[in-house]
């Protein structure tokens, strides 16, 4: 049209351009193609087919709108739940700070506090509650931590100047000291919560974790450094100041269950496994029989869970909630949690063989729903023939 108005000659149209010229409009999307008739160079649609396509298109639009509405409702619900959760956490923080912590001795065992405890301790007060619940029976001070750390640093410096392992023995280092060498601790630190990238070399908490583990090996040379300790220390570092984390760490490892495992007291470990199996059979008889049939003993999965207090096996936020109740109920809750995991996945585990069960329990799913998980734990009864955990 422009060329005709201006009197300019126009080039002959290509076949493709000719098709476009015959159209009343140019489709901008597949929607337009669905709604309009076929191009002029193609046979027209029969009326029935055109009507059918229009109906199909309208149905597609309705379905798309339904999906959009469903997604919008889902997002709205998630937002409401998040706001509700934030409000409940905010209210819980006020309760913990104003009512519970100032009156800890009188309120810590009350029913109200125990119920609040089960729901999870707010992150901002978690460290304080853990410290109070774990206690300090060993009477460790900040000054003692500084002394142990200074001794550890001195030993590391001595090691760096001594080359061969034989020379180390001549220098008078014990077997426990050798096990707690800088190299072994460094190796384990690099494996601690690798996804967070905060404990590895160059990370903000690398030196802190290294210091606590080194100081502990000097504080308890009879125990030394054992793999799995780095995860426990790391969780405490995330919730407490360094010296307080060391105090909680040392007192936590001094508990009977942890000491039995970290000192590899086979007799006591077998006692714990036997007690666990009593409650296993009581709560989950079908799965217990399946495990027995496949010769799957508790040590295959329990050792890793107990060594790291679930911090390696569960998502970190869920592990912290397990720690919350563990600080309240003690070692019993570690084994109750284990039974809760087995109950949650009972249907899946009963269909697996030895290898697949061991693999599954070694690496649990990462998307564990917290409420469903704790509901499963709550359903576990820690009483067998009128005997509680400690009695068994």
From TrEMBL:
One of its GO terms (molecular function) is small GTPase binding. Keywords: Coiled coil. InterPro entries: Rab-GAP-TBC_dom, Rab-GAP_TBC_sf, Rab_GAP_TBC_domain. GO terms for cellular component: cytoplasmic vesicle; vacuole. The keyword Cell membrane does not apply. GO terms for biological process: vesicle-mediated transport. Residues 47-89 form a coiled coil. Residues 1-23 are annotated as: Disordered. SUPFAM superfamilies: Ypt/Rab-GAP domain of gyp1p. This is TBC14 protein. It comes from Odontophorus gujanensis (marbled wood quail). The lineage of its organism: Eukaryota, Metazoa, Chordata, Craniata, Vertebrata. The gene is Tbc1d14.
């Amino acid at each position: 049209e422009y060329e005709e108005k201006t009197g300019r000659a126009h080039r002959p149209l290509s076949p493709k351009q000719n098709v476009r010229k015959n159209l009343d409009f140019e489709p901008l999307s597949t929607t337009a193609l669905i709604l309009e008739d076929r191009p002029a160079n193609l046979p027209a649609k029969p009326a029935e087919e055109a009507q059918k396509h229009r109906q199909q298109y309208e149905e597609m639009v309705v379905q798309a709108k339904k999906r959009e509405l469903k997604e919008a409702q889902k997002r709205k619900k998630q937002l409401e739940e998040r706001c509700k959760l934030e409000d409940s956490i905010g209210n819980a923080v006020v309760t913990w700070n104003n009512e519970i912590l100032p009156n800890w001795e009188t309120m810590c065992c009350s029913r109200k506090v125990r119920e609040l405890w089960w729901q999870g301790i707010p992150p901002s007060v978690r460290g304080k509650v853990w410290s109070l619940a774990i206690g300090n029976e060993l009477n460790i001070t900040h000054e003692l931590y500084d002394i142990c750390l200074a001794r550890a640093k001195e030993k590391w410096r001595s090691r760096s100047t001594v080359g061969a392992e034989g020379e180390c023995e001549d220098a008078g280092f014990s077997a426990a000291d050798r096990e707690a060498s800088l190299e072994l601790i460094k190796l384990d630190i690099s494996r601690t919560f690798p996804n967070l990238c905060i404990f590895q070399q160059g990370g903000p908490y690398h030196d802190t974790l290294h210091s606590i583990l080194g100081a502990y090996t000097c504080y308890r040379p009879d125990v030394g450094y054992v793999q799995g300790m780095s995860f426990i220390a790391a969780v405490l570092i995330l919730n407490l100041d360094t010296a307080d984390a060391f105090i909680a760490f040392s007192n936590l490892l001094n508990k009977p269950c942890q000491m039995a495992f970290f000192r590899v007291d086979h007799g006591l470990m077998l006692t714990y496994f036997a007690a666990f199996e009593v409650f296993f059979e009581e709560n989950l008889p079908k799965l217990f029989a399946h495990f027995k049939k496949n010769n799957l003993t508790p040590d295959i999965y329990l050792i890793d869970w107990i060594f790291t207090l679930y911090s390696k096996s569960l998502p970190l936020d869920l592990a912290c909630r397990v720690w919350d109740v563990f600080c309240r109920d003690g070692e019993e809750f570690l084994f109750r949690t284990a039974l809760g995991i087995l109950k949650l996945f009972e249907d899946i585990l009963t269909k697996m063989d030895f290898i697949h069960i061991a693999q599954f329990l070694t690496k649990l799913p990462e998307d564990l729903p917290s409420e469903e998980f704790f509901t499963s734990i709550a359903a576990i009864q820690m009483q067998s023939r009128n005997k509680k955990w400690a009695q068994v």
